Structure formats: structure tokens, C-alpha cells
Amino acid sequence: MSNSIKVESPLHHAQLDQLIGQSNKGGVILHEAALLGHLNLRGNAQDAEFLAGVQEALGLALPIMPCSSAKSELAQIMWLAPDEWLVIVASGREYDVEQKLRAYLKGHFAVSDISGAQTLIELSGENVIDLMNKSTGYDFHLEIFPVGKVVGTTFAKAGAHILRVSEDKFRLVVRRSFSDYVWLWIQQGSQEYGLTIV
Amino acid sequence: MQQYSGFGLLKHSFSYHENWQRVWSNPTPKKHYDVVIIGGGAHGLATAYYLAKEHGITNIAVVEKGYLGGGNTARNTTIVRSNYLWDEASHLYDHSLKLWEGLAQELNYNLMFSQRGVLNLGHSLQDMRDIERRVNANRLNGIDGEVLTNAQVQEMVPILNCSKNARYPVMGASWQARGGTARHDAVAWGFARAADALGVDLLQQTEVTGIRRKDGAVEGVETNRGFISANKVACVAAGNSSVIAKMVGMELPLESHPLQAMVSEPLKPVLNTVVMSNHVHGYMSQSDKGDLVIGAGIDGYNGYGQRGSFNVVEHTIAAIIEMFPIFSRVRLNRAWGGVVDTCPDACPIISKTHIKGLYFNCGWGTGGFKATPGAGHVFAHTIAHDEAHPLAKPFSIDRFSSGELIDEHGAAGVAH
Amino acid sequence: MLLIHCPYCEEMREEEEFNPAGQAHIERPLNPEELSDEQWAHYLFFRKNPRGLHHEMWLHSHGCRKYFNATRNTVTYEIMETYKMGQAPSVTASKEGQS
Amino acid sequence: MIQVNRIAQSSKRINRQRTLTFSFNGKEYEGFEGDTVASALLANGVDVVGRSFKYSRPRGIITSDSQEPNAIFQIGSTQATTIPNPRATQTDLYQGLTASSTNGWPNVDFDVMSTVGKLGGSMMPPGFYYKTFMFPQSLWMSYEHLIRKGAGLGASPQTGDPDSYDKMHHHCDVMVVGGGPAGLAAALSAAQSGARVIISDEQNEFGGSLLCSTQEIDGQIASEWVEKTVAQLADMDNVYLLPRSTVFGYFDHNLVGINERRTDHLGEHQLQSTRQRLHKVRAKQVILATGAHERPLVYANNDVPGCMLANAISTYINRYDVVPGNKLVLMTTNDNAYKTAIDWHQAGRKVVAVVDTRSTSNGELVDKVRKLGIEIIFDHAVIEVKGNKRVKGVDVAPINAANHSVTGAAKYFVCDTVASSGGWSPVIHLSSHTGSRPVWNDDIAGFVPGKTVQKQHVCGGLEGVYALSKVISDGFTTGAIASQAAGRGEGIYTGELPKINDPQEDASMALFHIPHSKKTSRAPKQFVDYQNDVTAAGIELANREGFESIEHVKRYTALGFGTDQGKLGNINGMAITAKSLGKSIPETGTTIFRPMYTPTTFGALAGADVKHLFDPARFSAMHKWHLDHGAEFEDVGQWKRPWYFPQQGETMQQSLERECLATRNSVGILDASTLGKIDIQGKDAREFLERVYTNPWKKLAVGKCRYGVMCNEDGMVFDDGVTVCLDDNRFIMTTTTGGAAGVLQWLELWHQTEWPELEVYFSTVTDHWSTMTISGPNSSKVLDKICDIDVSNDSFMYMDWREATVAGIKARIFRISFTGELSFEINVQANYGMPAWKAVMAAGEEFNITPYGTETMHILRAEKGFIIVGQDTDGSVSPQDLDMDWVVGKKKEFSYIGKRSWTRFDNKRENRKQMVGLKPKDPNFVLPEGAQIVFDKNQSIPMTMVGHVTSSYYSACMGYSFALAVVKGGINRKGESVFLPLSDGNTVEAEICSPVFYDPKGDRQNV
Ligand SMILES: Cc1cc2nc3c(=O)[nH]c(=O)nc-3n(C[C@H](O)[C@H](O)[C@H](O)COP(=O)(O)OP(=O)(O)OC[C@H]3O[C@@H](n4cnc5c(N)ncnc54)[C@H](O)[C@@H]3O)c2cc1C
Ligand SMILES: NC(=O)c1ccc[n+]([C@@H]2O[C@H](COP(=O)([O-])OP(=O)(O)OC[C@H]3O[C@@H](n4cnc5c(N)ncnc54)[C@H](O)[C@@H]3O)[C@@H](O)[C@H]2O)c1
Ligand SMILES: Cc1cc2nc3c(=O)[nH]c(=O)nc-3n(C[C@H](O)[C@H](O)[C@H](O)COP(=O)(O)O)c2cc1C
Ligand SMILES: [Zn+2]
């Protein structure tokens, strides 16, 4: 589509770009990884053909262990359910990656482009665990929640999938229509630590 | 029966209250009763009372596994109203409300029945449509009711958050002035005392463990104190009804769920009506002792533990603060749960069964306290005549096969 | 408040992530038309609702969106086991010596 | 202002460097940092702190902790920050604290109610309410009004709370509740074996009983050991310390609820900080080390200020350097309380006598007291206290505890303070919260935790282990065992034990209720539960009247109903009940312990889920535009949807008429993004639709759309919407906004539980698409300007869908119509929602394209007789009732969901309520939605209602008002009149007609 069009990510109205650099000593650091390509992939993890197809299409083995993820140049894949994955690709790549998947996959599978449906919020900083503990009942201890793990859980009163990117960095997958609520929640929850937007 | 009165109190104070009679005796079970009532909650006791008083059947035992009035009767938020949606339901509940209105005098026991009025808040256009529909139905059924605007609600309850900025602004409410609250324990004790005076045996700490049958008819009940034979057995076991039904190999269209309630520390009077909101899921009144009596939403899973999940308490209190921001610094004193027997159509079952002499009064779910006198009254009639009281007919268990459900979910929502 | 093991996520999760979904192992009659109204009503509305061991369904709504079964004591709220759709419980009332 | 009762510096718990001033009942006082309000008041010699609830008797401070029933205050200086009912004994003093009593008028020293109390008191036995105020019935409300005047303790704030609250979740291997010797030892050994440990204590610092103990550990005063141990714990990063944190509840599956008071000790209100934080801990193992509470004895006039718990007095002396009197009489059933006599003596005040109910004791503490030359009177008890606002003296008499009698003449002792100890009751509350019943232990004459299904351990005083050396070793061992159970360590404590020599103690006596020379009913009041004025006589009366179950006693007398939840009085009440019924205490049993352990602030329970965060508000991608254009919003589920777009000075009705006319005459635009959308893929998708929808789907061609209705198994409509066929095995289903989540769950339920063999996947794409519906005769002209495909009728037909670009944006366009006008539903990827919307608005400008909201949409669809599920249906309406037989598949081979139920008796009834249209006789009168319908307007109440109005509007396009309604047998009653008796008393007439009012032939959607 013509790039003259002003696309708006779910948190566009928060005007995060104008908040960048305003405070830099926040215990919580937030970044919206906006406008990436999101694909919802369904298929049978027991079906070797399906696994092979994904492997070829994405050059990446499908993570089939519960709550696991995988990453390559092209894509990051998060396990959502035994037969469901979230494939995240660079902005604008969603279309051809979907086509690629459709080309390589046979039998019973499904792909849905949901790039408009959600956004990625990256949270980091020395107090990020405190904020997480305020927001979800999941255990963020590294033994339980190692780097690379993905959990689908509640985030305050919204749902979210949370990926641990590094010891003190998380990626939240948040539904578009809930993103404003999550944004408000994060602001109030990080008040005592300070919030830095990057 | 020893008469109660202010004068009596004065008289007894001279003898240091040493000569008060027992309110009920503690009999040993007889071998046989005409009617055995399973369950010494307010419904069971009312049933016994009306059987004895209006149908001349006095050879009755009320069999209670714990203490009288210790089930949901002991743990409900005591809201009394009759502004239900469908004719069948509102007629039954209003029959009950009319009985409430003279009950303290009839039982010579102050039930602290307080007609302080009940507000059902509306927070959405559909809420208001449902309210309008329900109130109109009530009025044409001869049941008092009004639709109030946001402004009228604010005037009636100044401490209620009626601001347009609330997350779910109050758009209006239905108001039933005759509604209110009653002292739950007094209701059980008042009926028990009156039933005892009419010759009813109240058997506490007596648990029914089985029901004996012979060619399709009941013979009596097995209990931890031995077999008690009976011509008729009436089950009024609320949350435990399915357990009783199982004793005769029956299943019922019931699910028993935890339902929780809680009270704040006692406060000086701040709220003199009952305020209910299905939309934000909280409802509250203030007791004569001063504690805020708060009802929670139902727990989704089945549970007989008389306790629910903590997150329900958290949500309920959040809802109360949403409605009444001034209570944020008030403190919660106690929370508890009961076991409510819910029906698919949120209406009770008052019914004969395919077993001769076996009757059920159950399925009141979250809202049967208000029905206590009425339910006891029509159930007693049903038992005595072995035929449903006209008001009870629509609540037969057969409705689930015929499809004649009386769906109170639609407009009554949380049916307290 | 319950802590529930999702057999698909293979982890213990907070109750808030789930929705209870009623009695387990109820099968939809293959030929509804041939059932009497009573039989149909039974399928629609009548439930075991046991006091004690219960087999029930839960939906991991905020997790993997999968329905699964649990064997739970409805008095103590202990969860004896959770198991996938289509599987049979290994703990049952009879085995537990209850009825 | 001198603190008369403050003695020379010895405790490290208070900081003499920091003097704090505060006011109580309008008078100024001074205290020190580290004081509680109670210790400061006692330091200042304040005796009367309140009036009793029922009899209005003067009351003083009795305890030093969570048991306190009397010192219940109103604390705070403003209507926003005031707090009702905090306990003075648990409230840390801060500079400027303002407190007042919650009862007593005009003031606690002179209270008029007390005279009423004295006179009326005798007429107010338990249950007196139930016995009077009955006649006449009409008067109860006014009686009640009077009674309510006296109700309650503190007063609620009158404005919103300026403070904020939040919550935190935690997970740990071992959660230790209680930071006394047992808890600290347990936490330390658990942490040392590698466990993740959380330890919380409700006091302002850790140490529990050791904070007021004179005992030595390793040759140093016990509090040194506390400091050392706490420091050790603080150093470990696997340990999380929570002082000032009350565990208010122990919930199923080892969830522990903790309320941390973060700023209450700093002042009335702190800007920008969390006042209280609720911690929710999921622990693998829980160690309860909540200790034991001392029990008072029940004797005549035991509520006169100056009567206190022995251990409380020791606490005030040792922890706060406060001696709450001059002349002490101590009454005890055990050795342990002799400590109090020693402490009092060492504080330099007079111990008049120790009255011991036992025949003798040779324990070390007793000998020590003997050596101090203090008179000890065995086989005696304090049977009655003299005094009103302060103890003046006591009658001490020989008693025979066994047969509850006074066996000789009483001797009068002058004193101003009476300490009593009836032994100790383990703090079993938490262990009982999940349904476990406590068990009686004869050795300690108290209840201890019983069997539980929780992963719970107990140690220390809670177990009835009282000797400090044992308490600490018990703690170490339990900590090790618990952490092993959590998978850490070997389960044995290997560290060394501190050296402690515990005084040898003789057996104590199980005595609760002190006899009086008069029988209980005639003796002066012997209080059991102070807060509710429950007396021994009252309990016996309840028993006499037949209230024999301990639960009946509780509910009849209010025993344990207070804000201390019976911590002080319950066991005594049970003992008295047992005695009067001739039962044992275990036979009598306890009432049920429930959360809250101590009262918990509403704000903390709600946390941050208040105001705008009470519930998520969901927005579409175009929300900002709607805001900028002055939309009023309607709450639909969690969504905020534009309701209508008022322009300068317009009434709502005017806006609606403008929006409707613009749409019918030119073109309007609606944000329809909130409708649920489900992407259905797989070779069996079609078959699946066939089973969940009532109408057939086998023949829906690629490129086509179809409307469908979904029923529950009971045959009643529960959702509807359009489903489009993308290709043979892929469909997009739209649902109602409110139904979206429910429908997806519904589909998954059937797929996962009943038809797993069907190859189909469902994914929600609701949020992926922004949907704008342009509707009206000019809609194609607008679209044509910015769309890359031919949108004319003959190439893009009704119920077709197309892929296209709109203003250069990829779009899926559905040619479906909910307004009856020519309409296009444009779906674009939501990140493009706003630009697409703006582009359409720009293109539509020349046609005066008009944004409309849900209300106009409702009017337009109603003119066409289209239903809104949830408004025109209520869960009791079948497709047949809606006169929508056309949507009911007759020849579908699968018995789809809902079908079977239609053949039930009730569904076949002739006179079911059926959907019809209504035309009011007065074309300008809009029937109220929800108005009830009758056939016979002259019938008297109760009237026979035959239906109601579900939707009703004034139609600007048609120039008259109209409504949709359900009416019994309505489908065959078209043309008949019905009546609507309205709440204002008027009855209006209307005519039953077809629900399709506008363009019945449906030409307009093809103009
Ligand atoms: C938290 C809560 C709030 C509520 N709020 C309201 C409200 O505001 N308004 C309202 O109208 N209703 C309310 N209800 C519902 C109301 O409490 C009940 O519908 C009503 O009390 C039912 O009365 P009952 O006598 O039938 O049941 P119960 O009082 O429960 O009596 C049943 C008795 O049967 C006994 N029993 C069971 N099994 C056996 C056996 N095998 N042998 C012997 N005895 C047995 C039980 O011990 C129990 O005492 C509420 C309920 C709860 C739990
Ligand atoms: N010899 C006797 O007769 C006798 C009798 C009783 C107690 N004691 C003494 O009592 C002590 C017992 O030690 P212990 O550690 O078992 O008890 P403890 O009383 O020393 O400590 C218990 C701690 O738990 C805290 N607590 C209680 N409930 C709580 C809750 N719900 N939330 C948060 N904190 C809570 C209390 O604030 C207290 O600090 C020993 O020092 C023993 O000498 C002696
Ligand atoms: C209307 C009502 C008011 C109550 N008020 C109080 C109260 O002020 N204090 C209290 O401790 N409990 C109060 N309770 C709760 C009871 O103590 C008790 O928790 C409840 O009856 C359930 O019984 P259980 O906890 O023994 O299972 C109240 C209960 C009801 C139904
Ligand atoms: Zn899961």
C-alpha cells in the first residue's frame, strides 16, 4: 500500500514518540514495537509434514514445547497452544510470509493475518519485575520463567501473552482494543519507579 | 407459647431473666411422623409452621443436620423484594412479601423486617429497558415499583457515585419501596419457636443419610440417629438438594455453587436503603448494627465448601468502591460463603416427584430468603393436598421437559 | 482461590486465567429427534452436582483457549487431576471409595 | 503535659529523641516515636477511652494487640482521610494524630446514655430486640430509626479517598506467617536450606513476644537475638521481609492474603505513595507461627478501666516503658503471668497481691515473686471489682473452681489495676480459614490447628509450645521440614541452637469463669465479649432459652461478632456455654473462623482497580476521531461506542433525526469495528456452520455473504450476524459486539468437546479489522471515488463481498445492509482504520456524508424490522417467535443446535409471544421501550399482560413513531388493537402490524 498513508498503531493516540527522552531515570522502560507483522498460525504439531512446511517457509523450526518460542532473522514464533502459534515478522512482511506459509503447508492448517489486531509492548528496567508482579499472577522467577519462555495469562484485567526477552526485558502481546487500558495500567503501576519511554 | 412484649421484658428483668421459657424443646425422634421435613433452614421451618397451622398436620419432624437456620439462612444478605419480571415469579414473591408484612405479629417475634426500599441500578440502555419492562409488569400485577432517573437516584442516595464520569455511569434505577431487609436469624428462630409451640419436633444435629422407599412411595428417612418412618418426606435442603435426590437415584436440574457475602466494621448510619447493581456486580445494605452487608457475585464452579474464591471478594469490594467511593477507607470485618442451588432459569422448584410422598422445594439459588414465608406457605399446601398450590404450579420440575421455563436471568440478573 | 494445572500448557496457573465450564463427560445425543422430551431435558438441564468427587470442565480462556477436564473434590476443593478432552479420569468416586 | 505513667528509659522500642504530639477527644497529649496510640494514652494516664455499645459503660484499654475490644477510635482530621474503627493498640503514633472515641455522648467521661444504660440495661438481655418493638407493626420503622441512631462504632468518611492502593503477586517455597521467635527461626532455617522465603508480621517490627520479653537468649536480652536474626534474613536475597503486614486470610491451594500498611505510621495521608499494598502469595508450603493470645478471666465488673490482660501490662512496661497504674492485683491460673508481677515490681510500683486460683505452685517464677516479698494468695480469685471510671479495689475470695462456687468471705484490697491471666489460646484463625476445624488440647487448655488439606505447617505458640527454648528449636526444625517439602534442602536443621534457660513452670489450671457469691444471673456483670456487651449471664440465659449450639449462642448474644472477632472472649464464651450445658469444651466446639484476621481496608482489597481502571474500556481505531467530533458514547460490553454525534445546540432527538435523514437521503457512516469477527478455516468449516447456525450453509458460494442465527440447545436465539465465504474452506463470521467472546468460546466448546474430528480452526480477528459502514443512496458514489473496483449494482451485487483498495488501502468490502439502504461495509486492517475513515469522510463531503452512532443504527434497522439480539430477544425467544422461519433449515440432515428443543410442548404453543410491529394511534407518541401490552384495557389489576415493547422510536423518515414488540399470537393478530397502560397512569392504544415498516419490498438496498 502507498506509504503516504499515515498508519496508526494501537497506541498511536498515546503519542509515545513525544514522550521519548522526557524522563530517563525510570525504573520501568517502555517501548511499543509498533506495526510489526503478526500472523496467527494453526496446525497439528504431530504432523511431520506440517512441521516441515513451517520449517521451509520460515527457515525456523516450529516451537512445539508448551510455552516455548523460537527466533530467526525472518521471524519470531511464540507457542500459544498445542495447535496455535503467533508468528511475528517485520513490518509489511506479513502478506508474503502468509503466502509463503500457504504455499508450503498442506493438509489441515490455518493462517490469519492479525497485524492490526494487536501490538507489542516491550517492558524492561530494574523495576520491571515489580510491575509484572503488580499486573499478573504468574511467577517471574528465572527458574520458572526463563528467557525465551512465553506465557498466555492475565495482565491486570486484560489478557496478554508475555515473552521473556532477557532477564529484565519482556514483550507483551496486547490486543488493540485493550491497549489503551494496558497503557493506563502501566503508567499507574510504574508511578513509584518512574517510567521511561524509548 | 410464652408471649413476648416490652412489658414482659420489664417483668422478667425483676427476676433477673431467670424464668424465660425455652424457645424450642430438644426432643428425641419419634418412630413415625406424618411428615418429615429435611432441612431446618427458614424454608423448612416455615413449611412445618404452615403445615401445622393451616393444614392441621402437627405430627411433623424437621430434621436438621446442623443447627436450625445454619445453612444459607444464616449467611444471606437478607434482601426482600418482589419486583421480579415474569408473572409466575412476581406473584410468588409478592405472596411472600404480603406474608412478611404481618409476620412479626403473627409469630410474636420481631423479625426486624425493615421496608427501607430496594434500588436496582441501571448502567446501560439495555439495563434501563429491562427496568422499565420489569417495573411496568410489576405495576400491572399490583406490585409497587417506580423507575427513577439518575437525578432521583442521586437525591435518594447522596453517597452513591452518580457521576457521568463513572466507568459505568448510573442511568437510573428501579425502586420498590415495600422491599427491604429482615433479620435472617430471627426469621428462622421465629418460625421454629412457633412451629415448636404447635407440636412440631425440631431435630437438630440429625442428618438424613438415606430415604427408604417401597413400591414407588417413600417410607421414611435414615438418619445418624436411626430410621424415622414417615408418610411424606419434604426436602428443603437448598445447596444440598442434589445430595438428597441422589439418595433416591434422582438427578435435579441444579448446580450448587459457592456464593459469598461480607460485612464491614460497624459504622454510624450512612445508607438507609438497599442498593443493588447487577452491572458492576455489587449490592449492599447497612444492618441495624451498623455493618455494611455486602453481597458478591456467584463463584462459577460447583462447591459445597461454604467458601468461594478470594478474587470474587476483591472484585465485589472494587464494585462497592466504584458505587460508593467514600467507603474506600472503611474496613472489611468478615467474609463467608454459602452453597446455593441454582436452576437453569433462575427460578425455584416447588414440586411433587415421580416418587409418591416425596416433595422438593429447592433451586432458590441466590434469592430465596425473601421467599421464606411464601415458599413455606405454598409448599405446605402442596404437601398437605399432594397437589401443587396454584402459585406453585408453574414451578413444577416438569417445566424442564415441557420447556415452560420462567427465565428470570433476562431481567432479574443477580436474583438476590 | 484455585491453582489449576493446565494439561496443555503443562503448568499450574491462577484461577483467574480459567473459566469453569460445567460437568464433564456429557455427550450430546447422536439422534436428538429420537429422544423423549424427558430424555432431552435430562441432557439439557439435569446434572450430577455431587458433594465430593466431581469431574468438571475448565476452559483455559486466558492461556491456550483449550477446554480440559478436572477431577475435584467439591468440599475440600482439592484438585486430584486434570486431563485432556477425550481422556478418562484416573481418579473416580468408586476408586476413592465414595459414591 | 507530663506522661505520668512513663518510667525511666530502658526499652529500645521507643525513641525518646522524637516526641510526638497528638490529640484524643480534643485534648493534646505527647508520646514518643515507637508508641502505639494505646501506649501513649496509658503513658498519659488516660483511663476511659470509650463507652460500651449497649450499656454505655466506661471502658479502658485491656490489651496491647489485635485482641483489643474497647480502644476503637475514629482517627483522622478531615472528612476525606478519617478512618473508622482502628484499634489504638495497633495504630502507630505519628505527629499530629487526631483520635476520638467512637461512642459516648456528649463525651466519654460524662455520657447520658450511661444512665439509660444503667436503667435500661437490665431490660436488655440478649435477644431483647426479638422480644419487643413488635406492636404496632406500623411503628417498627420508627423504632428502628431510634435503634439505628445508636448503631455503629466509627463514622465513614464523607468524601472520596485521596490515597491510592495496589497489589502484588508473589510466589515462594515457604511463606512464614508471624515473626516471633518461632517464625523468625523457621524463616532462617528455611532460607538457609535454599528456599524462597517470605515472612510477614502484623506488628511494626519483627520479634513478636520477644519485643516485650525480659528473658535472655545467649546471655543477652531476647530482642538482641531478634535484631541479629532479622539482620541475617535481610542479608539473604532469597528472603522477602514484610513487617506491618497482616495476613488477613489463608485461602485454598495455599494462597495467602497479606495487607501491608506502608504509610499509615507516617501520617494521615501521603501524596504520591501507596497507602496499603495487598500481597497475594502462592506458597508451596506455609508455616503458621502466629503464636498465642492470652485469655482474660471472666469476673464481676471486669470491664472497669484498669482491668487488663497480664501480658498486656508486661508489654506496656517492657516495650513502651509505660506502667498503666500504681497498685496492681494480679489474678492468674498459671505461672507465666507471675512475670507481670515481677515486671510491675521492678518498674517500682506496688504489687498489692497475686491471687492464684490454684492451690499452690512452686514454679521458678512463683518463687521469684515470693522472694520479692509479694503476697501470694492461693485458692482465691478476684470475684468482683469496685470502681466506675477506674478500678478502686477488688473483692478477693476463696473459691472452689470444680463446683464453681465461692467458699468463704471476700477480703477487700485497694488497688487501681487488675491483671488477669486465664492461660493462653493459640492463634488458630488462619489455620481454620479453609474449612479445617481446630482440635482441643487438654495440656494447654486450648484449641490447636486441626487436619487440613493445605500444605501447612505450624510451630511455636500456635502449637501450644510455649517454653522459648522449645519454641525456637521448633521453629528451626519446622523451617527445614517445610523447605524440604518445597523441594529444598535435607529437612533437618543443622545450625546450632541458642542457649536459653526457661523457668520451670508448674501446671496451670483450666479456669475461665470466676464464680461470684451471687449466682451469675444476679451478680454484677461479668463481661465475656466487651465490644458487644456480652456477659456470662447473657450466655447462660441464651442456653436456658434453648440456644445450645455454640453457633446459636454466637448469633443470639453476638459473642464474637465484634471487630476483634472474639479473639478476646470466644474461648471463655465457649467454656461458659459448656459449663452451663454440662458438656466439655471440645463437645461444645468453636464457631467458625473466617477472614479477615483483622479488619482490612476496602481500598486495599480493590487495589488499583478503581475509577478508570475499574474495568477495561475498549476503543476502536477511530475513537479519537469520534472524540474530536463530539460524539456521546454508549457502553456496549466493555466497548465505548459512539451513541450519536450531537452538533452545536442540538438535542439528542434532533441529532438522531438529522443522522437518520442524512443516511436515508444521501449517505451516513457508522463505525462498526466492534462487531465480533471470527476467521474460520478448514475443510469442515462449512459443515461446522451447518451445525451451529439454524439456516443452511452448504450452498453459500465463494464471494457471497449470508445472515445466520445461532440458538442455544434450548432453541432460543442467542446471537446472529453475517458470515462471508472467502473460499470453500474459509469463512469470516461476524457476531454481535457483546456476543463476540461468547460465540468464539461456544464454537470452541463444540469443536473441542463434541466434534474434534471436524477439521476446522477458529481465530478471532475482531481487533484486526476496522469496519466502517457507509449506507444510503449515495454510498456507492462515495465509494466509487476512492475504490479501485466497479461498485455498481450489476457487478457488485447485494450480499456479495469483494477485495479492493479504498483510498489505496487494502480492504474487504461486504455489500450487506442493516439499514435497508444501499450499504457497503468496508473492512481495513485496523492500523489503517483512521486513514481509511478520514479518506471516506473526505470523499463523502460533497454528499454531506454524516457520521451516525448506535442509536441511529438502531432506528434505521428497526424501520426495517431487523432484530437486535439482547434487545428484541431475552433468551426466551426462538426464531419462530421472531417470525423468522425462513432462517430455520428444514432439510439439513444434521440435527443442528437448538432444533430438537423446538418440538417441546411449550415451543409448539399457539399463543407464544411473537415479534410484531406496533403503530401507536398517536403517530407522534413514542411508546416507552419496556411498556407492557394488554388486550383488554378495562381489566382491573392484576392485568393479563400479553407482551411488551422491545424497541421504539420516532421515525423522521416515515414521519411517525413506531415500535417492535412481542405479543402473544401476534403474528396472526396483525391489524388488531392492543393497549399499553403506562407508568404515568395513561393507557395508549396501538395497532399490531408487520415489523417491516420501511421499504417492505427491499428495493432501496439496490438503488
Ligand atoms: C451469600 C448469600 C447471599 C444471599 N442473599 C440473599 C438475599 O439477599 N435475598 C434472598 O432472598 N436470598 C438470598 N440468598 C439465598 C437464600 O439464602 C436462600 O435461598 C434461602 O436461605 C434458602 O433457605 P433454605 O431454608 O431453603 O436453605 P438453608 O437455610 O440452607 O436450609 C437448608 C438446610 O438443610 C440442611 N440439610 C442439608 N442436607 C441435610 C441432610 N442430609 N439432613 C438434614 N439436614 C440437611 C442444611 O443444614 C440447612 O440448614 C443468599 C444466599 C447466600 C449464600
Ligand atoms: N510460657 C507461656 O505460658 C507462654 C504462653 C504463650 C506465649 N509464650 C511466649 O510466646 C512466644 C511464642 O512464640 P511464637 O513465635 O510462637 O509467637 P509470638 O507471639 O512470639 O509471635 C507471633 C507473631 O505472629 C504475629 N501474627 C499473628 N497473627 C498474624 C497474622 N494473621 N498476620 C501477621 N502476623 C501475625 C504477631 O504479630 C506476633 O508478632 C514465646 O516467646 C513464648 O515464650 C509463653
Ligand atoms: C446479614 C448478616 C450480617 C452479619 N453481620 C456480621 C457481623 O456484624 N459480624 C460478624 O462477625 N459476622 C457477621 N455475619 C456473618 C456471620 O458471622 C457468619 O459468618 C455467617 O452467618 C456465616 O456463618 P459461618 O461463618 O459460621 O459459616 C453476618 C451475617 C449476615 C448474614
Ligand atoms: Zn493452557
How are the elements arranged and paired?
The complex is a heterotetramer of chains A (198), B (416), C (99) and D (1007).
Chain B (H helix, E strand, L loop, with lengths): L5 H9 L17 E7 L3 H14 L4 E4 L8 H4 L3 E2 L6 H21 L10 E5 L2 H16 L5 E4 H7 L15 E5 L3 E2 L2 H14 L3 E3 L4 E7 L2 E7 L2 E10 L5 H7 L7 E10 L9 E4 L4 E5 L5 E7 L11 H14 L7 E12 L6 E4 L5 E5 L9 H14 L13 H4 L6 H4 L4
Parallel strand pairs in B: 1-2, 1-11, 2-8, 4-13, 11-18
Antiparallel strand pairs in B: 3-7, 4-6, 5-6, 9-10, 10-11, 12-15, 12-16, 13-14, 14-15, 17-18
Helix pairs in contact in B: 2-7, 2-10, 4-10
Chain C lengths: L2 E4 L4 E4 L4 E5 L13 H8 L8 E7 L7 E7 L5 E6 L15
Antiparallel strand pairs in C: 1-2, 3-4, 4-5, 5-6
Chain D lengths: L14 E10 L2 E7 L3 H7 L6 E2 L6 E2 L12 E4 L7 E5 L10 E4 L10 H10 L6 H4 L8 H10 L14 E14 L3 H12 L4 E4 L15 E2 L2 E2 H14 L3 E4 L2 E7 L3 E7 L12 E15 L3 E3 L12 E3 H11 L6 E6 L5 H9 L3 E7 L7 H8 L4 E2 L2 E8 L3 E10 L4 E2 L4 E4 L2 E5 L2 E3 L2 H4 L6 E3 L4 E3 L7 E3 L9 H18 L41 E3 L4 E2 H9 L5 H8 L12 H12 L3 H4 L11 E2 H5 L16 H6 L3 E5 L2 E6 L7 H14 L2 E4 L4 E6 L3 H8 L12 E7 L5 E11 L2 E6 L4 H14 L7 E4 L4 E7 L3 H8 L14 E6 L2 E6 L8 E7 L3 H12 L5 E2 L2 H10 L41 H4 L4 E8 L11 E3 L10 E11 L4 E9 L8 E5 L5 E7 L14
Parallel strand pairs in D: 1-7, 8-9, 8-15, 9-12, 15-29, 17-25, 18-19, 18-25, 19-20, 35-45
Antiparallel strand pairs in D: 1-2, 3-4, 5-6, 5-7, 10-11, 13-14, 14-15, 16-26, 21-22, 22-23, 22-24, 27-28, 30-31, 33-34, 35-41, 36-39, 36-40, 37-38, 38-39, 41-44, 42-43, 43-44, 46-49, 46-51, 47-48, 48-49, 50-51
Helix pairs in contact in D: 5-6, 5-11, 7-8, 8-9, 12-13, 12-14, 18-23, 21-22
Bound molecules: flavin-adenine dinucleotide, nicotinamide-adenine-dinucleotide (NAD), flavin mononucleotide and zinc ion.
Nicotinamide-adenine-dinucleotide (NAD) binds next to helix 5, strand 13 and helix 11 of chain D.
The gist of it:
The complex is a heterotetramer of chains A (198), B (416), C (99) and D (1007). By secondary structure, chain C is mainly β. Helices cover 8% and strands 33% of the residues of chain C.
Textual characterization of the structure:
The complex is a heterotetramer of chains A (198), B (416), C (99) and D (1007). Chain B is built from 12 helices and 18 strands. Chain B is α/β, with parallel strands linked by helices and 416 residues long. In chain B, strands 1, 2, 8, 9, 10, 11, 17 and 18 form an 8-stranded mixed beta sheet that branches. In chain B, helix 2 packs parallel to helix 7, helix 2 crosses helix 10 and helix 4 packs across helix 10. The C terminus of chain B is likely disordered. Chain C starts with a strand and ends in a 15-residue tail after the last strand. In chain D, the strands form 13 sheets. In chain D, strands 8, 9, 12, 13, 14, 15 and 29 form a 7-stranded mixed beta sheet that branches. In chain D, strands 42-43-44-41-35-45 form a 6-stranded mixed beta sheet. In chain D, strands 47-48-49-46-51-50 form a 6-stranded antiparallel beta sheet. The chains are: A alpha+beta (198), B alpha/beta (416), C mainly beta (99), D alpha+beta (1007). Chains B and D meet through helix 1, helix 4, helix 5, helix 7 and helix 9 of B and strand 6, helix 3, helix 4, helix 12 and helix 13 of D. Strand 16 of chain B pairs antiparallel with strand 32 of chain D. Bound molecules: flavin-adenine dinucleotide, nicotinamide-adenine-dinucleotide (NAD), flavin mononucleotide and zinc ion. The site of flavin-adenine dinucleotide has 41 residues of chain B, from helix 2, helix 3, strand 12 and strand 16.
